Amino acid sequence: MILYPAIDLKDGQAVRLLRGEMDKATVFNEDPAAQARAFVEAGCEWLHLVDLNGAFAGEPVNAAPVEAILKACDVPAQLGGGIRDMATIETWIGKGLARVILGTVAVENPDLVREAAREFPGKVAVGIDARNGMVATKGWAEETDVQVTDLARSFEDAGVAAIIYTDINRDGAMQGPNIDATAALARAVSIPVIASGGVSSLDDLIALRDCGVDLNGAISGRALYDGAIDLAEALAVLGAHDG
Is-catalytic flag, 129? Predict the structure, then answer.
């Protein structure tokens, strides 16, 4: 199971939000590229990047820090937030991004997800953000009447690389992930599932690893910045069970 350290970008800085609320941001590093390097030097094999401003604006806003991270680090990175057209997808993959995460457009324009997955095999993930089992879009600001499993299953034949499932009520709250919902989703589809939201301790990571279904990985942000999860220890625990 891969541990994806999260670098959430707001106004050019690495921050964490509480339950997705932009006015509840804590700045953890004014230099996101330095933060990314620190994660890589500690042994991380992937980076998870989010353009928070972009998620609300509907277009990339924090392109400069993302590009700085891509230049500074030699591990693959995935990015979500404000990626809503083919031109933006092409631009990011051209700049060396390993995987784009499509969230809002997965609900509003699923054909774009299919087209992008065909055009860039292995480089398109779907971000499904949920509140009480229902999908939320536009930086979590808008609720939909779409159920998580229905949306996930609709991409079963599209060739997407992964589904990143976030329980919004758990995100940044350090209350543990929604393991039952994550495991249920992973059982419902053949697409690899990455858990996100509330991963706040080594025990959370072990519980996800041992939830009875193979998850591709887990994303953690605040717990790594706060030191609630020791990165080297977490990588050792997860890596020991590979294969």
Answer: yes
Q: Which of 8, 51, 167, 204 is catalytic?
A: 8
Q: Which one from 129, 167, 171, 204 is the annotated catalytic residue?
A: 129
Kindly give, in sequence order, each residue whose CB lies less than 8 Å from that of residue 47, ignoring residues fewer than 6 positions away. 4, 5, 7, 36, 39, 40, 69, 73, 75, 76, 77, 78
- What is the chain's pLDDT, residue by residue, as a tens digit (243 residues)? 999 999 999 999 999 988 888 898 999 999 999 999 999 999 999 999 999 999 889 999 999 999 999 999 999 999 999 999 999 999 999 999 999 999 999 999 999 999 999 999 999 999 999 988 899 887 777 889 999 999 999 999 999 999 999 998 888 777 899 999 999 999 999 999 999 999 999 999 999 999 999 999 999 999 999 999 999 999 999 886 543
